[in-house]
Amino acid sequence: MILLGDASCIILLWFKSILDDFVLVLGGLINEGKIHVYSLNASKLFHRRILRIFWLTGRDEWTNFRYLGLPIYLKEFPHPSWVHVIEKFKSKFEQWGAHWLNLFKRLILVL
After folding, report:
1. CA 79 to CA 29: how far, in whole Å?
2. Strand partners, 70
3. Are residues 50 and 83 in the same domain?
4. How much of the chain exceeds pLDDT 70, in percent?
5. Residue 54, in any domain of the structure
6. Are residues 39 and 1 in the same domain?
7. How many domains does the chain have?
8. What pLDDT sits at residue 109?
9. Which end of the chain is less packed: N or C, by CB atoms within 10 Å?
């Protein structure tokens, strides 16, 4: 799950409510080792507040991270990184047997 929102206390508390409801409905626990908080254009003080409210540890400076196996970059996505992503998609298409789909239908399959 990825949650995106403005750097405000209202949004932060809304996210906390969503995650609390998620845990309540599913009857499970959130794996804190897999939660990462990345802030963009937010103060270091606000970032620390986020971590404190969610009882997490984290970094307030970052350049990139991976989400669902795809690299997410703070700035421009470097061209060489696309080669790996494209090759990975090609490999998945072959495994799924999507070779019979034309390029446009393959794009829809990915999306």
Report:
1. 38
2. 67
3. no
4. 81
5. yes
6. yes
7. 2
8. 54
9. C
Token digits for 9? 């206390």
Is 69 part of a structural domain of the chain? no
Q: Average pLDDT over the chain, rounded to whole?
A: 76
Q: Are residues 52 and 80 in the same domain?
A: no
Token pair listed for 12:
């932060």
Between CA 88 and CA 39 the distance in angstroms is 28
The position carrying tokens 């070779």 is: 99
Residue that has been written with the tokens 């499970």 in this structure: 28
Where is pLDDT greater, at 7 or 104? 7
Q: How many residues does the chain have?
A: 111
Strand ranges, E, within the chain:
64-67, 70-73
The one-letter code for the residue type at 98 is A
**Are 75 and 63 a contacting pair, CB within 8 Å?**
yes
Q: What is the distance between the alpha carbons of residues 23 and 16, in angstroms, rounded to a whole number?
A: 11
Whole-model pTM above 0.90?
no
Tell me which residue range forms the domain holding 92: 76-111
**Whether 23 and 47 share a structural domain:** yes
